[in-house]
Amino acid sequence: MRRRSVLRLAGTIGVVGTSGCTQFPFRGQQYRLWFVRIHNGSGSEQQFELRVRRDGDAVFEGEYAIPGFRDDENEVASYAAMDAARLVEAEWDVQRGTYTVEYRFADEDSFEEVEVGEIDEFEAEDVGVEIQLYGGGLARRSVGLKVLEFDSDEQAGRFLSTVTNQTDG
To answer: What digits encode the pLDDT tens for the residues 46-63?
Structure first.
């Protein structure tokens, strides 16, 4: 008898404790991905492939030959205008969703897959992703990932407008 009362109480607490909850823990964070910037920080050219998925569906695929980084670029080139960088933007509709970035060096068989929400903790609804390529030549290649947060879609749009205008001028 006592066991049934404890089980009934536990069931009631479970139902009351979850009432009013509309967000389930298994659902991914929703945000807008505005761009992906790939920067080759190595001294040698890298052949790199990128795929972006929103809610599981591919929204972009591209292949890039990115020249190696030169120290003199650091002082004269802007965020998007460096020879060793590619800014991938305006290639998909910027919509709320859960985004996955898939990448590989061209000579690799399989893609690495990373959900943007797992790169960094962030609360922003408007983000960009930076991919940094390291190594090559004699050094082992590796990839670093970072999320850039924006306070609003207007701020993200202004940022992109500024950096793309720098590449045109």
So the answer is: 899 999 999 999 999 999
User: Running DSSP on this structure, what letter comes out for residue 78?
Assistant: -
**Whole-angstrom distance, CA of residue 89 vs CA of residue 127:** 12
Q: Which of 89, 72, 109 is nearest to 34 (CA)?
A: 89
Residue spans of the domains in the chain: they are: 29-168
Give the residue carrying structure tokens 């082992």.
Answer: 140
User: In this structure, what DSSP letter does residue 10 have?
Assistant: H
Query: Which of 169 and 119 is assigned the larger pLDDT?
Result: 119
Let me know: does 147 contact 33? Beta carbons within 8 Å: no
Nearest Cα to 169, choosing from 96, 87, 76?
Answer: 76
- Short-list 150, 147, 169, CA closest to 159: 150
Nearest Cα neighbor of 151 from 117, 119, 129, 127 is: 127
Q: How far is CA 151 from CA 31, 32, 79, 132, 164, in A?
A: 12, 12, 19, 23, 20
Distance CA 101, CA 79 (A): 20
